[in-house]
Amino acid sequence: MAYMPLDKSKLYLETDKMPKIWDLSQPWGWDTPLWPFPGARSDLQFPRGQYLERFHKRTNTYTGTLHAATHCDAPNHTLHEEEVDRERYGYTLAEMKLEHAIGSGVIVDLTYLYDEFEEAFNAAGGDPAKMGPYAEIPGVQKGAIWHQITPEEVQAALDKDGLEIRPNDFVVLNTGFHRYWRINNDKYFNYYPGNGPELAKWLMYEKKIKAIAGTYGASDAVVWHCPCKEQMPWLYNNYKLATGRDIDVDYPDYEPCHRLFGQHGLMAIENAGGDIDQVTGKRMTIAAFPFRCEAADGGMVRLVAWEEGTTW
Predict the structure, then answer these.
(1) Structural domain includes residue 131
(2) Nearest C-alpha neighbor of 227 from the set 249, 212, 194
(3) pTM of the entire structure?
(4) Domain membership of residue 274 as a residue range
(5) Residue 40, pLDDT score
(6) CATH number at residue 284
(7) What pLDDT does residue 159 have?
C-alpha cells in the first residue's frame, strides 16, 4: 500500500518541550541569491528523478555551486595544497576538523552598520557618483559604504553586551545585512561591511578563535577581490565614480581573509542570517558541520545556536 492515512493521536514527539535551537542559516533552493560574477553562470537546478504521482516517492538531484546560501569554505577553495598544513587542518571539505565546527562562542552586535549604511546610501540616492562623502577609502577616510569592520568596533560591541572573545571561540558577526537577503541582493552583495586582513589577524592571532561566521556575502569585504576590474567590473566602476580612485590600487589583493582563515584551520561561514537577531549580543553554543564530500571546496551548512549548559 502506497498511502498512509495520518493518525494524529499517535504523534508522540513533543517538540515544544525540547531545548530551543536557533537557526542562523538562510534557506537555499530556487532563486537563492548567488555571489555576482561577470558573464553567464549556471543557476541552481533541482530536477526530479522520481515523483510521488508515479513512483510513490520523491527524489531530486542537484546541480549548482556548493557556495550557495549559508555555507562553509574549505582551504582548497582559495589555497594550493603546499600553502596548507593538510595533516593538521585538512584541505578539502571532507577533511576539515569537526572540533572546529562546534563550541562556545559569541554573536557580536554590529547591526548599527546596517543603519549607517542605509542612511548613507539614501543620502546619496543610491547613485555611486554621489557616494564619495560616505565611501571608505583606506588611509583617507572611514565610511559607511564599502566599510571594513575593525577590531575596535568588534571590541566595542563586545563591551556593550558584557561579552569577551575567549580562545577557541566560535565568533558570529551580525552586521544586520541579512535583512537585505532576497529583498535587495544588490545591496547585500555589493556593499556589505566585511572583514579585512587587520580584523582577521586580530581574531586569529590575538583572540585565537577557531571559527567565524557573518551576515555578509563573503568572508572578505567586497573590495578585496583584486582585480575587481575583471572580477567585478560594476564594482570597479562604481568605486571610481564615488571616489575617483582605482579600487585595485587601494585593495591590491584577492580574498586575503579567505586564505588566512583557510590556512589556519578556521571554519569560515558566509551568509549567516535566519534567527540571528534573536540571539545577538549573547554567548551561545554554536555549531555548523560540513558534509563529508571529498570533491568539495565548500558546502552548505546548518548554522545553529543554543543556550550554553543545555541538557538534552
Answers:
(1) no
(2) 249
(3) 0.96
(4) 21-30+66-110+149-220+255-306
(5) 81
(6) 3.50.30.50
(7) 98
